[in-house]
Amino acid sequence: MAADVVMPQMGESIFEGTITKWLKKLGDKVERDEPLFEISTDKVDAEIPSPSAGVLKEIKVSEGQTVPINTVVAVIDAAGAAAAAPAPTPAKAAPAPAPVPVPVAAAPAPKPQIVPPPTPQPVAVAPAASATKEAARVHSSPLVRRMAKEHGIDLTTVPGTGSGGRVSKQDIEAAISGSAAPAAVSASAAAASAAQRVAPPPPPVAPAPLAGGGGPAAHGTQYVPALQIGVPRERIYHGDYEVEPLSNMRQKIAEHMVASKHVSPHVYSVDEIDMTKVAALRAKSKDEFEKSYGTKLTFMPFFVKAVVAGLRAFPPLNSSLDGTNVVRHKEINIGIAVALDWGLIVPVIKNADEKNILGIQRTMNDLADRARTKKLKPEEVQEGTFSITNPGVFGGLFGMPVISQPNVGILGLGAIEKRPVVINDSIAIRSMCYVTLSYDHRVVDGAIAHQFLHKVKETLENWSEPLV
Amino acid sequence: MGQVTFLDAIKQAMQEEMERDPTVVLIGEDVGVYGGAFKTSEGLLAKFGWERVIDTPISESAIVGAACGMSYLGLRPIAEMQFIDFIVCAFNQITNFVAKGHYLWDAPAPIVIRGPAGGGVHGGPFHSANPEMYFVHTPGLKVIYPSTPYDAKGLLKAAIRDNNPVLFFEHKFLYRRIKEEIPEDDYVVPIGKAAVRREGKHLTIVSYAAMMHTALEAADELAKSGIEAEVIDLRTLAPLDSDTIVESVKKTNRCLVVHEDTKTGGIAGEIAAILCERAFGHLDGPLMRVTALDTPVPYAPTLEEYFLPNKEKVVHAARELAKY
Fold this sequence. Notes:
The complex is a heterodimer of chains A (468) and B (324).
Chain A: E1 2-6, E2 16-22, E3 29-30, E4 35-40, E5 45-49, E6 54-59, E7 66-68, E8 72-77, H1 78-83, H2 129-136, H3 142-151, H4 169-177, H5 184-192, H6 248-263, E9 266-274, H7 276-293, H8 300-313, E10 319-322, E11 325-328, E12 334-336, E13 338-340, E14 343-345, E15 348-349, H9 357-372, E16 386-389, E17 409-413, E18 417-423, E19 426-440, H10 446-461
Parallel strand pairs in A: 12-16, 16-17
Antiparallel strand pairs in A: 1-8, 2-4, 2-7, 3-6, 4-5, 6-8, 9-19, 10-11, 12-15, 13-14, 17-19, 18-19
Helix pairs in contact in A: 3-4, 8-9, 8-10
Chain B: E1 3-5, H1 6-20, E2 24-28, H2 44-48, E3 53-55, H3 60-72, E4 76-80, H4 91-98, H5 101-105, E5 112-117, H6 132-136, E6 142-144, H7 149-161, E7 166-171, E8 179-181, E9 195-198, E10 203-207, H8 210-224, E11 229-233, E12 236-238, H9 242-252, E13 255-262, H10 267-279, E14 288-292, H11 301-307, H12 311-322
Parallel strand pairs in B: 2-3, 2-4, 4-5, 5-7, 6-7, 10-11, 10-13, 13-14
Antiparallel strand pairs in B: 1-8, 6-12, 9-11
Helix pairs in contact in B: 1-7, 3-4, 8-12, 9-10
């Protein structure tokens, strides 16, 4: 049996790949998963393993050629593996005839000729039958396929509520009876994992017209893309493992993060801030500060103030997108990511622009303490207009945060470390900090983002505000 | 008759059959004077004498060989393995002679080979075996592994009366743990017939022996969340009652097999194949298995617990299957 080897898709939005090297020759025996060829795409270079064992029977795409994904690039003869492991070498020549003496220097060796490189032939893209068939295939079961056939139902039109979106018996029964109510087991099984199947986040487009019951019939429980798995389920379970349910908080985080990445085209800009001045000020005043106000002085309020200055100067970063409208927030409410033992939450410092360092520090401490003791009120995690997250506190050089919706920006703070930097052509030791701005490119462009970052940098590097 | 333990059910079956038929004899290690390691033959020596209740040296091969010879000469021996683990010492006798006699020479071998099997009692690797599948795989043998006193008695009687060699496994975990009312009248339970222990519509749990009780407990637990499992007790492993399994799965469309035997080569694999052959178009999910791990039975109680299937494992697998 011969198996086709196709150009794999090495990532979303990659549609072609170039074969840079064949690692096997025609007639070579190849094991399953043994590297077969190397490819280069606009995103990755990779060794591609053989999809099956056998003998490399045909190479259809030669080195240097670029072909669309799913193009058949080679054929592996599986039978060859079983029948004759040794490659189809020509039958061993019987006792070789006496070697014909080679006329020495009879003719000058042919000069190396400059041969034009072979023009890449457009490879006849045999519609990769197996691949397209695979794509159209609906995850179901023998029973469901039989029932669909008996009732003349196109399975691609039946929404699946089984694991991984599989069309289950209940789904096909519902489709047959035209009823939207899922059958008992689906509901009860879903109850065991109820939270897994909440409605997906609101669509990223213009506000949906208020559906007066005329919308598409809700079909039982819906499949949540946030909890989608990227491989067939059975590949998850191997070796020794334990299974524990994803906590509610993690499910919410998963939904929010996937929705955010789905909705907002993230762009990341990084800048480096010299925190020496702020560090000196903090070092000088922190004991006094703590004694007077009963709270420790951290770097965070300085960043909040600097961000406030940046947002004032560049209001597009303090907005939300609603379909074709941009909502410019007049308040500056800064969400601060707080790491918890069981997850992450982003309480909001409301009207951060109206507070001084002391006020921000107090509010922040209060919110963080109550986040850790689960005493936050719902409104205290809402109405943020911009967020700050601090991976640096765990030693991160810098992070690439995901935007907390419906904001359009989030600032990630790296660790503040002493680094040698060049100032006026001499090397100085300064307290440096990388900051990363993730922003929604639908609303904010790089020019504004970098100006904002610069404003933040400038504010911190030339700190002049009093603490109280 | 009152509540009868699994152990008493075995004893009753042997005693009643020995009373009914003078050709029935019992042979094994310590079955006479000592009354059996688990007291399944207590009092039988006094009742039936040395010629019918025969103590042997410690040689399972000799016990089965002798029983085989007896059966050729018209007796109906019950050969006891003190622990079923040691049945493999008689493997040659069973598979080469007992199982083939009828096929080769038209010599019926009405032998019952029985003994305590199974784990969960901290017996360790030499006293906890479930060797049923060696014999399920051997043509010419019937293999019974009951789960209740009623079935144990009725099936053992049927086995003694059967003209084929029958292997009869008794789960020692059940010996004293379960009791039930059983009729005083003579009755037999037909060999080769499974029982539906609980009806359900969302999935079928196929099991036997001690695990059948685990499956029932799991089904109760599942019912609390609205999953109704049908529980089938195989009772006989060879010949397998595939009709009952297929019929149930045609109704529920999902099948979970629970057995205490180790996974690879267990009956679950055979059932999976049967369902593929006979009910493929009715499957709405993969056949799933909850079985012991592919290792010897561990000594350490904690490890044995980890090794064996239990209610939680069955419930977990059933939920996965139900929502598949």
